[in-house]
Amino acid sequence: MKPYLKENEWSIIEEGFDPAKHEISESIFSIGNGHMGQRANFEETYTGSSLQGSYMAGVYYPDKTRVGWWKNGYPEYFAKVLNSTNWIGLRIVIDGEELDLNELIVSDFVRELNMREGYLKRSFKAELTQGRQIRVTATRFVSIVQKEIGAIKYEVKPLNFSGTMEVTSYLDGDIKNTDANYDEKFWDPVNTYLKENRASVTVKTKKLDFHFCSTMETHIVKNGEVLDLEGIGKEGVKYAGVKYKAPLTENESITVYKYAANVTNRDHDTEQLETVSSKELNKAVEKGFNQLLSEQADAWKEKWLDSDIVIKGDVAAQQGIRFNIFQLNQTYSGEDARLNIGPKGFTGEKYGGSTYWDTEAYCLPFYLATAEERIPKNLLIYRHNHLEKARENARKLGFEKGALYPMVTMNGEESHNEWEITFEEIHRNGAIAYAIYNYVNYTGDKSYLGEYGIEVLAEISRFWEERVHFVPRKGVYMMLGVTGPNEYENNVNNNWYTNRIASWTLEYTLYVLDYLKDTNEGLYNEWIDKLKLQEEEMKKWVDIIDKMYYPEDKEEGVFLQQDGFLDKKLMTVNDLDSRHLPLNQNWSWDRILRSCFIKQADVLQGLFFLNHEFDIETKKRNFDFYEPMTVHESSLSPCVHSILACELGYKEKAYEMYLRTARLDLDNYNNDTEDGCHTTSMAGTWMSVVQGFGGMKVVNDQLVLNPFIPGQWDSFSFKIRFRGARLMIHVDQTNVIVTNETDKPVDIVILGDKYNLKGVSELKVSH
Length: 767
Ligand code: BGC
Description:
The chain is of the alpha+beta class. Among the domains are: about 5-305, Beta-galactosidase, Chain A, domain 5 (Distorted Sandwich); about 695-765, Maltose phosphorylase, domain 3 (Sandwich). Helices cover about 35% and strands about 25% of the residues. Strands 1, 2, 9, 10, 11, 12, 14, 15, 16, 17 and 20 form an eleven-stranded antiparallel sheet that branches. Strand 15 (about 200-205) and strand 16 (about 210-220) form a beta hairpin. The two termini are about 40 Å apart. The site of beta-D-glucopyranose has 12 residues, from loops. Beta-D-glucopyranose binds near residues 343, 351, 358, 485 and 680. One of its GO terms (biological process) is carbohydrate metabolic process.
C-alpha cells in the first residue's frame, strides 16, 4: 500500500476518507495515557470494517489455551488485555437519518493526531439525503493529568438546512475481544444507572473479578449556552445511554461535550467504583473541556522537554521518530509497577497486551534516558514482584531450584499460546538479568542491587546452573533444546547467545555478591541467609563460567548461532527471488526452520548487549556473516543491526536499517498495522538514533558519545537525562554540541576525548 499520510513535523495527518485504510488509521491514530488507551474509532456509528478497541491497562483475562494436543508444561491460559466498555459512543440522527460514514458521501475528511499536545481531531463534510450537508469536527483525548478521564468535543454544523438532531450519548460494555480463543465474551454485567445527564455502566470479568466502571456526562451547547434538554435514558444489559433532541439551525454549530471517568478495582475498592468515578467526573466537568485540553497540552510539553528528538532536513524522519516517542509515552507512564508494555500498546489486540522480553531488551533504555529514575526502576520492580511466580514456573517445568521468568505474561505466570517458539526461548531470563545491569550501569543507582536486584539475579543464576549440563567427554557445559532470539530455528543445541547470556548472568551475579560483601557486609549476609546461598553453589557458578561451551568457527572467525548452523545450506537474502519474501507468508514452517535465514538478531543480539566484551574485528566478522542471512521479519531486528552498523562504520547499512523501523507503522511497511502498532519496536528506533547515530553509551560510569550523522539529514538532536543532569545533544554535519540544561556538571567522552561539561553550559566539538 502506498504511504497515504501527510508529512508533518508534529502531527500525523490523513486527508480524504478511504474505508480500506480505516483500520490501519484506527491503529496509527490511537490515543493513550498509560492507564487506558483506545484505537481511533469514530464516535458516531460506523458500519464499515473497524476494530472497536478500548483497553484499560492491567485489566486482562485468562483465556483458555487453544492447542490440538495437550502436553505437560503447557500454560493453562493465554492472557489478554480486555477490550472494554466503549465510552466514546455518540449516535447521531439528523431528521431521521443516521450519521454513518459508511453510508454517506464524505468530503473534506481530515484526521489529525496532534502529538505536541496529545489529542485526536477529525473533521469532515457529510451529505445526507436531499443534498443536506453537515460539517462535523470531533476532538478527543485521554488525559495524562487526570488519568481516568477521557473527553470529547463533537461539533455539528448544518451547512444548508435547519432541522433536528438526535444525539444518543452512550456507554456500551457488551464488548468482545476479536482474539478470543473460543469466541467467548469476557464481561458480565454488574450495574447500570441513569441520573439526569449522567449514565454509568459497571461490568466485571467472568474470571479474576476485575470490575470496570465507566460514568459519563454529556452537555449540548449552542451559541455558548448549555441547552436545557430533557434526556431520555435507556438502560440495557451492560449498556446505558441518554438521548437528546436538539434544534439545528443553518450555519450554526451545535456542540456535544462528553466526559467519561473510567475506573477499575485495580486502583479502587470494588464497592466504591461508582462513587469514585462520579467524583472524578465532577472534577473533570467542573474544569470543562478547554481547561482539560490545555492541561493536556502543558503536560505533553513537559514530556517532550525530556524526550524529543529533532531531525532537520527530513520531515518524514522527524515525523517518524516523534510518532514513536509519542506512542511510547502514551503506552507506559511508569507510575504503577504492576503495569508493563505490551508489544502493541493500546493500539490493537495482537500479542494480548502481555509483557515480553521486549521490555527489558528494547524498551528499558528509552525510559532510562527520558524519564525520572523511578520510572525505569518500576519496570525492574515489576519483575521482582513476579519472582515468586517465576520460581513456581521453574518448578512446574521440573526444575528443583531457581526462577524462570515467563516469555509472555500478565501477572508473572506463563501465558502464551504456542509451544517451542515461545516456551523454549529461555534466553528471556538473561534479558531480565541484563536489564538490572543496564539500569545500574546507566543510572549509577547501585542501591538497587542490594534492595531487589540480587534476589532476581541469584534465582536466575540458579536456573541456568540447573539448565546447563556437564559433558564429561568434552569437559564443557552445554545447553540443549532451546530457541534463541531467532525464532526461525526451534529446539536447537547450544544457541551461542543463550549460552553466553546465561554465563554472563552468573558472572554478573557473582560480581554483585562481591560488591555487596565489600560495601555492606550486613546486607550481604542477610541475602546469603535469605537466599540460602551455599559456597558450593557459587563455586559451581564459577565452574560453569570457566567451562561453558560456545559454538564457534575459527576458520570463519564467527560465533555459531547453534551447533548445527554451518551444516545448513548457507545463502544470503540477496540469493532469494523477492517473491519468497516475507518468508513467513510464503514458506512452510518446515522450510523456514531448516533454512539458514534468520528472523532477527541472535548472535548479534549478544554482541549488542555485551558490546564492551568484544573487539571491533569480532563484531565486524559476525555482522558480515549474519546480516546477509537476516530477513528482519521481526520488527525488533533492524534496530540492533542499525546500532551495530553505526559502530562498525557501515553508514549506509545503518541508515537503511534505521529506515526499516522508523516509519514501520506510518508507512504500513509490514502490511499489518491494522492489527495495531509495533510499540516495542518503536523503542528500538529510538535506540537507533540515540545509541546508533548518537553513539551514546555509558562505560565505567562515563557518558560516551560517538556521533555520526546520515548524509540525508542536516542535523539531529536528542535529549537525555543522565545522573541528575539533562543534556541536549545536537549533531550536524560538522559539529557536536552538547548543552547541559541543568546545574549538574557532567563528565563526558566525545569521539574519544574527555570533557567536563559544567552546569548550564555548552560544549562544541567538531567531527
Ligand atoms: C519476536 C519476539 C518478540 C515478540 C513480541 C516476535 O515476533 O520474534 O522476539 O518478543 O514478537 O514482540
